[in-house]
Specification:
The protein has 14 helices and 5 strands. By secondary structure, it is mainly α. Helix 5 runs antiparallel to helix 6, helix 6 packs antiparallel against helix 8 and helix 6 packs across helix 10.
């Protein structure tokens, strides 16, 4: 425990981080360069206690970070220092502002985006809308991942910053059932190709997500008057739509690649019209309450929901 944190960091970078995903390495390197080394470089590992960590989290250096970011920072610190603090030993501050709801594309918005695009972009938006796949998973799809007979898409890899890597979690390896029209759209896009990535940059490389957003999705959203967001908003929209359609939670988790109901709840954004229709179908406690409004609300919603 007399080793210095700076020495432990060098060892961790050489023997541990080198085996991690590129996305994880990038995040941890940011933790090390921006926060951990400036604070703990001169510390021995024995000096890094829960008390010292709590003092650091309340300091000006990191007080601007969200509780979630602070937790990730402490995770990196613990991995480097070989520490395991007891439950509740580390105190994270409460959020200073109300958490803004994450973007979620409605079925109407997703259909509008698909209709307003062409070529490869159209296929990418269609896949995102119909599967809820993460952006990296979409960019990592290969021709051989499509089961043309069973109408299924296999998720076997991901792309981060233009580089192929494994999916985010073990649950992310999955099979997604899709409608035939989506596979027909994909088939038209790839033509006679039997191998390789489904989607590529103009130079024939794997797509870089930041580039796709800047050059394709964000300009289109601005043109359509839709609030700026990323591909993940399609994922939120797909989960919400599946729940509204009464799809079993176990099937949703299998298609989305999550193992818990809690994660489904995280992605769930029930539309006002859907909630209004649900309320309209509940008998009122007031027996003399007029039902005409309830009936019209439910009817309007039913007519507005269309299976994409």
């Amino acid at each position: 425990m007399n080793s210095r944190f700076s020495s432990a960091t060098l060892w961790f970078q050489q023997y541990k981080m080198s085996k991690m995903k590129q996305s994880t390495v990038k995040t941890m390197q940011g933790h090390i360069n921006n926060y951990l080394l400036p604070k703990f470089a001169g510390y021995t590992l024995g000096m890094i206690t829960a008390e010292k960590v709590n003092e650091y989290l309340s300091s000006d250096e990191v007080s601007h970070l969200s509780p979630k970011s602070q937790k990730h920072l402490v995770t990196t610190l613990c991995l480097i220092a070989g520490k395991k603090f007891g439950r509740g030993a580390i105190r994270y501050p409460a959020p200073k502002t109300l958490r803004e709801e994450e973007p979620c594309r409605t079925p109407e918005e997703m259909q509008l985006i698909i209709d307003a695009s062409a070529g490869q972009d159209k296929v990418i938006y269609a896949v995102a809308s119909e599967t809820g796949m993460r952006a990296g998973e979409i960019y990592g799809l290969e021709v051989t991942d499509i089961d043309w007979i069973r109408n299924q898409i296999h998720v076997r890899r991901s792309v981060y910053d233009g580089q192929i890597q494994t999916p985010k979690t073990q649950n992310a390896y999955r099979v997604i059932d899709v409608k035939p029209w989506l596979l027909e759209l994909i088939k038209k896009h790839i033509g006679d190709r039997k191998l390789g990535l489904l989607f590529m940059s103009g130079r024939g490389h794997a797509i870089r997500h930041t580039t796709f957003l800047r050059r394709h999705l964000h300009p289109l959203l601005k043109k359509l008057g839709i609030k700026k967001s990323g591909i993940h908003a399609f994922r939120h929209g797909r989960v919400s739509y599946l729940v509204e359609q009464g799809v079993a939670r176990e099937i949703i988790k299998a298609w989305i690649g999550h193992g818990s109901d809690a994660m489904i709840e995280k992605y769930l954004h029930l539309r006002t019209s859907y909630r209004a229709a649900a309320l309209a179908n509940i008998p009122s406690l007031q027996p003399n309450y007029p039902t005409s409004f309830a009936m019209s609300s439910g009817s309007s919603f039913a007519e507005s929901v269309q299976v994409m």
